[in-house]
Design goal:
2 copies of one chain form a homodimer. By secondary structure, chain A is mainly α. The first copy, chain A, contains 10 helices and 3 strands; from the N terminus they run αβααββααααααα. In chain A, strand 2 and strand 3 form a beta hairpin. Chain A starts with 8 loop residues before the first helix and ends with a helix. The structure holds a DNA duplex (30 and 30 nucleotides).
DNA sequence: TACCAACAAAATGTATCCATTATGGTTTTA
DNA sequence: TAAAACCATAATGGATACATTTTGTTGGTA
């Protein structure tokens, strides 16, 4: 018997729209018409409507009370606050992790950071998440880890192309190295401080860039 | 023209099921059949399916890959971790709030705690949330505030009847009073410590109760 | 008794149809 | 000219019908 190629329509539609929002194919504010999507995927509107509800729950789509759905926008303020939340939780996870880290955890982190040093630009975001994930695994806090994963995936991923052009790669790599060293030396306080700086520094820089870009876009739009 | 009495079916069905899950009318693990719900609310299955998707996004309902939907269960471990997360975020919010608090904020908090002292048991949970909300408002972190609200509503609310019978009310009230005093004295460190204890102490107690209750239930179920 | 196959009943997944509501453009009017 | 009213178009919300999948039961066999 051949494998099960046909997936439920809701699932494949949801996944595809999600991917298109995350990679920027469907940009901020874009209207998502049920009929258009339905004809695009050659399905009826029923699964499309459910898919939009699911994506609305993930805050990737906004459904107004008129029923119209659009891709949500990212404000610099909410971006900054998400970074703050990220920093808060990640620092706590790191603090819990360090005392429980083994040499193999350290080695794994170093290995990922080496991959980061020579990876293609598109590979950065998932690998970078992996790096952080490895550091927090010993803490054994699946829920917090999940919140972090969500923040990365639902939020950072959408800024991917943006981050690509504004990231200070050598600096990030240096900071990763420093972070690993401090973990190895069981310097909890130092490691936590380094991590918080690592996250918030790039956050402020990105938020500034976001602000000026959105300003520019609004100006060109009003021409 | 008379007011708009008819709401969209998806919304009213979602709200009603959510309320029934939160107040225990629909208990943990209960199967939620689309046809049953549809006939209960006198609507077709279409809005019911969307409602279930929404509630699944809120983690109140689980939809297995067979399509069957059930009310999610609360494990003591995930409960404890949610409390940890709550404590982490609330402590940060309090830390940010205290320097920005005015006398009217303190007064408001005292007022709510006075209401708590003489309120009916069912009023405790929302009033208690309000008390905490007032304390964190000056921090001006809408996203974090929202995460906290979610944790309270989606999680604590479901334990309402349980909390009712196991809460140490006088102790909570005393701790609230102490918390307010420390805020008024701008004792950030002391207030944060008091808050963390306040949250985690009751968390551990409740988790223990939860564990033994679920154990008891499993034993009676296997008779 | 235990196990398996086949079938029946019930539940979910999707498509289509109709009703209602929102949107955009045109015409009318002040 | 500007604003309001109106109408045609298009989109969404919900109901129904049908297809598919899951589940439970029955009956037969080792």
């Amino acid at each position: 018997m051949s494998e099960n190629n046909k997936q439920k329509a809701v699932l494949s539609v949801t996944e595809d729209i999600r991917a298109k929002i995350l990679d920027g194919t469907y940009p901020e504010g874009m209207a998502l018409s049920q009929v258009d999507i339905a004809s695009t995927y050659q399905v009826s509107r029923t699964p499309v409507r459910e898919a939009l509800q699911i994506l609305a729950g993930e805050e990737l789509v906004e459904i107004r009370d008129t029923g119209r759905a659009t891709v949500t926008t990212i404000s610099p303020e909410s971006f900054l606050e998400k970074c703050e939340l990220r920093a808060l939780i990640e620092v706590k996870l790191l603090e819990l992790s360090i005392p429980l880290m083994g040499t193999e955890d350290i080695a794994k982190a170093r290995e990922i950071n080496e991959s980061l040093k020579k990876c293609a630009p598109e590979e950065w975001t998932p690998l970078n998440y992996l790096f952080h994930e490895v550091l927090y695994k010993p803490a054994n806090r699946p829920l917090m880890q999940n919140v972090i994963k969500d923040l990365h995936h639902r939020h950072y991923a959408r800024l991917k192309s943006f981050i690509l052009s504004h990231r200070n790669t050598p600096r990030s790599l240096r900071e990763h190295d420093e972070l690993i060293d401090r973990c190895e030396r069981q310097d909890i306080e130092g490691a936590c401080y380094a991590l918080e700086s690592h996250i918030m520094m790039s956050a402020y820089a990105l938020a500034e860039q976001l602000k000026s870009q959105q300003l520019k876009r609004r100006q060109t739009a009003s021409l």
